[in-house]
Design brief:
Blueprint (H helix, E strand, L loop, with lengths): L3 E5 L3 E3 L13 E2 L1 E3 L9 E15 L4 E2 L12 H4 L2 H12 L7 E11 L38 H27 L7
Parallel strand pairs: 3-7
Antiparallel strand pairs: 1-5, 2-4, 5-6, 5-7
Keywords: Membrane, Transmembrane, Transmembrane helix
Protein name: Cytochrome c
């Protein structure tokens, strides 16, 4: 699984059953993660991005609860009857249901704090530090090997050359003055 990387400040906003959905911005975020490159409290986090379709009430524009399983004739896995399962789920959760429903595209972010691969499958440097890396979509940062800055590269190479010249000058001075005695 390749994670979805995003800025995260530790704050999550959830879409609740009573929240009216804005269907103009599909997919609906079941949970919205906060954070940005401009926020000093934010860090880049790996998430598992779950995509799906959820039932919603087309009259009330709210998400619906589905009665999924159980030994009764209203559970979805017993009868595969969406209207009955949605009516039962609404009654169990105390939420209204107009009887009219459809499905809406949704996405949900799960922090990757489990499903960590074994050491031999760990990421290598180039997985993040490269032009087409996993972090290619993250803005607001400078990352060596990923986002180039011509002046920074020139300064870096100048430091390397100056260091090499300093080492060579030191070697030359040691060779030239090696036979002299200290007084």
């Amino acid at each position: 699984m390749v994670p979805h990387y995003a800025w995260f400040d530790g704050t999550v906003e959830y879409t609740l059953l009573e929240d009216e959905l804005d269907l103009s911005g599909e997919p609906i975020e079941i949970n919205h993660i906060d954070g940005s490159a401009d926020d000093p409290a934010s860090r880049i986090w790996p998430f598992k991005l779950m995509r799906g379709k959820q039932p919603f009430d087309t009259q009330l524009n709210t998400l619906l609860v589905t009665h999924v399983f159980g030994a009764d004739d209203t559970s979805l896995w017993s009868n595969f009857n969406w209207p009955n399962a949605l009516q039962a789920g609404s009654e169990m959760s105390g939420r209204p249901f107009s009887g009219e429903y459809d499905f809406v595209e949704t996405k949900m972010y799960w922090p990757i704090t489990h499903m960590v691969p074994p050491a031999e499958q760990a990421l290598r440097c180039g997985s993040c530090h490269g032009a087409e890396s996993r972090l290619a979509g993250i803005g607001g940062i400078y990352m060596p090997g990923h986002s180039g800055n011509a002046w920074l590269d020139r300064i870096g190479w100048l430091v390397v050359v100056m260091t090499l010249l300093g080492v060579l000058a030191h070697i030359a001075a040691r060779v030239i003055f090696r036979g002299r005695k200290h007084s």
